[in-house]
Amino acid sequence: PPSMITFDSPTRETCIVRETRTNTPLQALNLMNDPSYVEASAALAARMTKAKDPVREGYRLVLAREPLPDEAKVLRGAYQSLGRWELIASMILNLDEAVTQQ
Q1: Which of 51, 49, 59 is closest to 91 using CA atoms?
Q2: Is 0.90 surpassed by the pTM of this model?
Q3: What contacts 24, CB < 8 A, 6 or more positions away?
Q4: What percent of the chain shows pLDDT beyond 90?
Q5: Element (H, E) at 48
């Protein structure tokens, strides 16, 4: 798929043992605007809002850990400004920790 080119995914013509690790602005743009990622953000937001603490639930679902106090504070502040959990879910899904496998 064309979006995989942005993530420097190898072609199927040759066998690649180890993929290169990259991080470009185009990847973030793709993660925030591609329809499949927008739908994933909406689905994540729907699950987050069912919890008592949506930010904590988002981190648990995506990163399998608790948010650090500073991380939670930033996202709660962003929610106060933006007022939409879909955008906060998109921010969580766009974190380097969520995108890059280590």
Answers
A1: 59
A2: no
A3: 6
A4: 55
A5: helix 35-48
